[in-house]
Amino acid sequence: MIGRALALLALVLAAMLPWNAAEAHPLAPAVLELRAVDAMHHDVRWQRSLLQASNARPEPVLPAGCEAPGPARSQLMEAQRALELRWQVRCAAPLVGQELGVRGLANNGINALVVIRDLEGRTTQALLDAESPTMVVPAAPSVWAVMAQYGGLGFTHLVFGPDHLAFVVGLFFLVNGFAFGLRPLLIMTAAFTVGHSVTLALSVLGIVRLSPALAEAGIALSIVWVGWRVLQQRGQSSATGTRGQRAAVATFAFGLLHGLGFAGALRALGLPETAMIPALAAFNIGIELGQLAAIGMLALVLHALPRALFLDQRRPVTVAAAYLVGSLGAFWSMDRLLQLVPGVPLIG
After folding, report:
1. Nearest to 128 by CA among 98, 146, 101
2. How far apart are alpha carbons 223 and 209 in whole angstroms?
């Protein structure tokens, strides 16, 4: 009975992670940028990940009246593991009101960022995905549309980012979830929220900068820590008192590291110049909604199990979760620490 319950929990937790969990992050988004040179000509920049299979690579789709008089210039971007192409197009009509997009987004589940800069310096920015691979260029960007797009991006980054999700799952078990009330859980998640919100804002605004490789290694180590702390809770009813306070402080500190990871994803997309603060706020709100969705889903799963497995200190379930989370964190830690080789700058 207990063995079947543990197997069920492991399958459920594994199902909450993307199938490419070994990478611990989805592929970087594609970027399509058009910058007006004059009334008829636009410089085009197209960037896509090199990690995509040859039969799943996205391609830009420009308006029918836009033609390229010459070949594109290519540049390999090893640090970003991306390929960048640049060329110029001549368009028979203004872009406003015309449709453009990116073909092939459904093949790899990534987003595509479209940035359009007109002659007056105004920027229109949109996020395309498999469900909405095209857009009609608006006369002026909508702040509400930008917030909806970036809020959705924050939600999916938490839910489909297995390292962040593993940390949240570990926090749930660290405070014994709903079996002992919501207060310890809310305190711990609030500490994580405050931590990542601070560094997310400071990093995106350029006030704090840290090597992405170092930040990702720290995130992986935080997952090992939370799995170890769950095992240390053996025999304790909840993460309260002095131990709970120390755990909340450590959670806040690791939240600072996760915020740098969120910021790396957001910098890869860029923030719209005309709605930078609303987009940043919406992205952060999306992260919180994703965190609450993950906690709610896990709570429903636990309540579907036999009560003896999660009310009597929930030992079988808790131990299984701790080892699963800790093992994932250990794997990611070794993988990311090996990338911190001499000669790679840690700051900048």
Report:
1. 101
2. 22
